[in-house]
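Why this split exists: single-chain examples teach little about how molecules sit against one another. For that reason, every record in the complexes split bundles all components of an assembly together and asks for one structure covering all of them. Below is a record exactly as it appears in the raw files.
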Amino acid sequence: MIPLENFLILSGILFAIGLFGVMARRSAILILMSVELMLAAVSINFVAFATYLDGDAFNGMVFALFVITVAAAEVGLALGIVLRLFRERRTAYVDAADTLKW
Amino acid sequence: MLDRLPLPAQFDRIIIAGGTAAGLVLTPILLVLVALLIGDQISGPELVFWMAFTVIVIGALATVLLPNIVHAALSLIAALLGVAGIYVLLAAEFIALVQVLVYGGGVVLLIIFGLMMTNAQDDPIVTDGSQKPFALLVALLLGSVFVAAGLDAQWGAETAAVIPFRDFGARLFRDFMVPVIIVGVLLDIALSGAIVNARQPLQRDEKSEGSGS
């Protein structure tokens, strides 16, 4: 049987990669994709803990399901905002949206 | 070398090269894992885990590092399907199916349509700003903290619980009725917000009407 630690290590690596993408890229859509990677990492942790430690395995899976649902809603809404940004500024880079920057 | 192959002109050379590179990287790993499996060093589930591990890590790295956004989106599909494999390994078949349907089908399709609507120009990592070393430092630190914490902690007795597929929906709508309703409202609001944000503004019509009258 695979030890629980393997899943935790995979989740940590995936979260770190996604965090790097969020901080290092400029394209809004790439930042969105990196956020998806981070959410997938968190879902892996939820399901792994549910399967290995809960004894019932239901609550953690429901959390993963809700994470997937909210991620889908987030992507739809964020792409609408990116389209709006592109229409106003002719670019999809996040450093073009600096109206609120002091 | 690729130019001499009799390939259709519309084939994307970088996709072919990327697929070839991925095959060249993944095939030796698979061969080593199968050899270990035959030698009784690892079990079958562990072989699946390490294959999924390789696919996820390589796909995620390609997602955040490739300059072309379309290639990054294709790599994201690979990484998320690898995550679905991890869910199957964790006996969460329903989550795996939802992952393939929602991510592989919906989210990545939405992202690619978003790329079509905006200018999906190359985003060279050279121009990614001065925050890249800082981002690398923070990601490395946080990732090592996660890995160290996962290795160090003492967890309770492992149970390997499995929830039957057909109980899932009944228990979801019985035990989690209010969260399901709230998530439904959230999806509704997100859909309305996306429509309001993404639709064409009507200012031109109002202006022409104003000038006409």
